[in-house]
């Protein structure tokens, strides 16, 4: 498996006292992931893009120039041409400290470290992380310590690697800073702009995973009226409750198949939050899973990923447009229609085949009368009576 380099940065402060003035409500950790053999090319291209957008010695998300949403979006659109992926954990401090037992700062960050370790390395088992030696070091030091003590090593002499550098010497740390700061403008209450959703649009093809924690209720980037008949909050709340149960139960899994299911699920969650009415084609989801270099087929995807998630009572609907987490009655109707257009003709075909076989063999072959095909025979009779 090819080695990946991750440039990591955080946005927001580490204080748990979010109610105080000047303290952020969210804590966000973002990693920009690049193939090792592409790092030099991406770095050089980033430097050229940066020169186009600022005369400053480095790109900083909190720079005055990029408070202008139009300038930020133009830079993000140019950056989206680079060959990298984004993994982020977004922690809402309000939900953590109001509704959970994580009452203290150390417990809070230990849990964040656990999320980052278990999920980031699901995608990239052999990952070298590089962080800014200024600002990020305290967080990264805690993360490194956590990984050293808790990480599930898959190979004796090959595991996670860590380095510190400064953003002037390593421009790709600037890229991580700008990505993390831009994502924060989609979450932090005093930074949200009416056009913040365009930030996600600009980064969409680069996003592997935006992991919100806690996940309930899901934060939608697209404004939805809760009274809208096209959005059933009761249905959505139940689905996400079940999704969270599954994620929490399997967070530390070493089972490769379940890891694939989690990656699929996280991507469908992200797409739901981006637009709860949109579908994702199987190729789009498989592309995310195959980052792990396992090359699953569509048949395996349907059977071992979508099928088994459904077996775990996680509602995933499908249509000719792809897969999605349902949000309304219409999604369920389309799902039923999609299957009925396949199942009913199959039942009719078997019924016609059975009639021909019985006629040709003078009833000597009459499979539908056996117990093995009892349910199928009943379905054929019901269909014939309609």
Structure description:
The protein has 386 residues and is α/β, with parallel strands linked by helices. The protein has a six-stranded mixed beta sheet with strand order 5-4-1-2-3-6. Helix 1 (39-53) runs antiparallel to helix 2 (69-79), helix 9 (256-274) crosses helix 10 and helix 9 crosses helix 11 (298-311). The chain has helices at residues 39-53, 69-79, 93-99, 105-123, 137-150, 171-184, 197-203, 233-249, 256-274, 282-289, 298-311, 329-360, 374-385, and strands at residues 4-11, 26-35, 85-92, 127-132, 161-165, 207-213, 317-319, 322-324.
Topology readout:
Blueprint: E1 4-11, E2 26-35, H1 39-53, H2 69-79, E3 85-92, H3 93-99, H4 105-123, E4 127-132, H5 137-150, E5 161-165, H6 171-184, H7 197-203, E6 207-213, H8 233-249, H9 256-274, H10 282-289, H11 298-311, E7 317-319, E8 322-324, H12 329-360, H13 374-385
Parallel strand pairs: 1-4, 3-6, 4-5
Antiparallel strand pairs: 1-2, 2-3, 7-8
Helix pairs in contact: 1-2, 2-7, 4-5, 9-10, 9-11, 12-13
Could you give a short description of this structure?
This protein is of the alpha/beta class and 386 residues long. The chain has 13 helices and eight strands. 49% of the residues lie in helices and 13% in strands.
């Amino acid at each position: 498996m090819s080695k990946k380099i991750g440039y990591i940065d955080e946005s927001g402060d580490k204080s748990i006292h979010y109610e105080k003035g000047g303290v952020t409500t969210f804590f966000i950790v973002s990693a920009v992931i690049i193939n090792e053999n592409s790092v030099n090319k991406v770095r050089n291209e980033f430097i050229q893009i940066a020169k186009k957008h600022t005369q400053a010695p480095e790109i900083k998300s909190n720079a005055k120039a990029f408070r202008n949403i139009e300038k930020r979006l133009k830079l993000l659109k140019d950056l989206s041409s680079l060959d990298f992926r984004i993994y982020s954990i977004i922690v809402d401090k309000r939900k953590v400290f109001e509704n959970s037992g994580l009452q203290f700062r150390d417990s809070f960050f230990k849990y964040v470290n656990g999320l980052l370790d278990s999920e980031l390395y699901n995608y990239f088992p052999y990952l070298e992380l590089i962080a800014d030696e200024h600002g990020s070091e305290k967080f990264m030091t805690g993360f490194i310590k956590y990984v050293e003590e808790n990480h599930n090593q898959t190979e004796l002499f090959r595991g996670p690697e860590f380095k510190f550098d400064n953003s002037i010497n390593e421009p790709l740390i600037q890229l991580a800073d700008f990505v993390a700061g831009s994502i924060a403008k989609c979450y932090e209450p005093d930074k949200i702009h009416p056009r913040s959703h365009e930030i996600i649009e600009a980064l969409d093809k680069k996003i592997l995973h935006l992991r919100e924690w806690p996940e309930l209720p899901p934060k939608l980037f697209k404004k939805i009226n809760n009274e809208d008949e096209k959005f059933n909050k009761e249905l959505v709340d139940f689905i996400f409750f079940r999704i969270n149960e599954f994620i929490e139960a399997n967070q530390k899994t070493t089972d490769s198949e379940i890891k694939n299911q989690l990656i699929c699920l996280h991507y469908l969650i992200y797409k739901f939050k981006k637009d709860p009415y949109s579908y994702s084609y199987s190729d789009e989801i498989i592309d995310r899973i195959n980052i792990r270099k396992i090359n699953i087929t569509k048949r395996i995807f349907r059977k071992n990923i979508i099928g088994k998630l459904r077996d775990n009572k996680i509602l995933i609907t499908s249509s000719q447009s792809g897969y999605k987490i349902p949000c309304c009655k219409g999604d369920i109707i389309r799902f039923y229609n999609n299957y009925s257009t396949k199942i009913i003709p199959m039942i009719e075909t078997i019924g016609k085949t059975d009639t021909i076989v019985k006629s040709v063999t003078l009833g000597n072959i009459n499979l539908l009368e056996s117990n093995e095909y009892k349910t199928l025979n009943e379905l054929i009779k019901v269909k014939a009576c309609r």
